[in-house]
Hints:
By secondary structure, the protein is an alpha/beta fold. The chain folds into two domains: 7-253, TIM Barrel, CATH 3.20.20; 309-397, Arc Repressor Mutant, subunit A (Orthogonal Bundle). 36% of the residues lie in helices and 22% in strands. The protein has helices at 36-54, 74-87, 109-116, 130-135, 142-154, 173-184, 203-206, 214-230, 249-255, 288-294, 309-320, 329-336, 344-352, 367-371, 373-378, and strands spanning 7-13, 15-16, 28-29, 59-66, 90-100, 120-126, 160-166, 190-195, 234-237, 240-242, 259-264, 268-273, 278-284, 301-306, 356-359, 362-365. The strands form four sheets. A nine-stranded mixed beta sheet has the order 9-10-8-7-6-5-4-1-11, with helices on both faces. Strand 5 (90-100), helix 3 and strand 6 (120-126) form a beta-alpha-beta unit. Helix 1 runs parallel beside helix 2 (74-87), helix 2 (74-87) runs parallel beside helix 3 (109-116) and helix 6 (173-184) packs parallel to helix 8 (214-230). The protein is globular, with a radius of gyration of 21 Å.
Amino acid sequence: MLLDPPLSLYVHLPWCVRKCPYCDFNSHALKGEVPEAEYIAALLRDLQRDLPLVQGRPVQTVFLGGGTPSLFKPEAIAELLHAMGQMLPIATGAEVTLEANPGTVERGRFAEYKAAGVTRLSIGVQSLNNEHLRLLGRIHTADEARHAAHEAHAAGLDNFNLDLMYGLPQQTVTQALADIRSALALEPAHLSHYQLAIEPNTSFHAHPPALPDGETVWQMQQACARLLDEHGFQQYEISAYARTNRRCRHNLNYWRFGDYLGIGAGAHGKLTHAQQNQITRMWKIKQPRSYLQHAGSDGAVGDTRLIGNEDRIFEFMLNRLRLYEGFSAEDFETATGLAFSTLLPALEEAEGLKLMRCQAGCWHPSSIGYAFLNDLQARFLPDQPRQPPRRRVHAGNCRTLPDLNLPT
């Protein structure tokens, strides 16, 4: 039976100082000053329009993503969080994450963000090697990344994530491990470790850099995972590692096929309407200028679509297979509203290929399944021929859903 899952709120703040050459998210290089007051007013109009869709359901997590949300002053973030809290119930103890880039962090700002209501940070470090930062087009240095981590600790925001990438131009396994060791020295609570992917409509796609070969990248991923495990970081998702009780609750809700309301330019949402047996996806128009003009009206909605039964199966599996915790028949039925028997034949087929395993009623990808995760996920696409796995796909190169810009 379909049940309303936990609800999260995603807020997209689309501006960056400069567009990174690998980035395919809805981010826009800033020209002039951030239009803080205008954009916050637009966000609140957007939220007001969407409130009937969630009918007073409590929000368990809030994620301020981008773009570079730390371009917004703490006073603006405080105004936004306070106003949102007046408009819809935000659960006591809710996780409130702010994405920040080291090149935009000023001394003392993290303490002010905490006072505004932020409980968790996600810091876009990407590398702690200055040459790799240059090749990635980042605006910060390794020392500025270290400074940002120290500022987080000083502000009492010890629950912070560091974003790291591997498979970088000219990177060796030794250098990838050095990045992990440097990050561990900063004592984060959480670490996201992604393989650099060359995406369409990016500068890197038009002018591809020379990247390490596939076997080298695989060695990086495996060696870095072992090192993180040795230092008490549990891998709970294909590209996420956390200390005890420090998993990202917001992202867990995504991967468990939970609900989320999305406000802001290009923000996506997914909402369950259990009584009507419906699940919908909705996204807002991407261009900030058009969004500012139309926020709060139907003109700000890029599209809304119902998720049919076959797509529910695929989207559930696309997300849940990323998690190491596995899922049960009940998890599937309450999240999709479908009988587990609709999924079971494909699961058993994957089990026969040693891509899935079932233990005590809980289904997980096997170690082989994680190595071939893209191929395993594709087996649950509607009307796809069932082919045996053809290639090893590195963990960090797996995406959750196209254009969803999931945060970390």
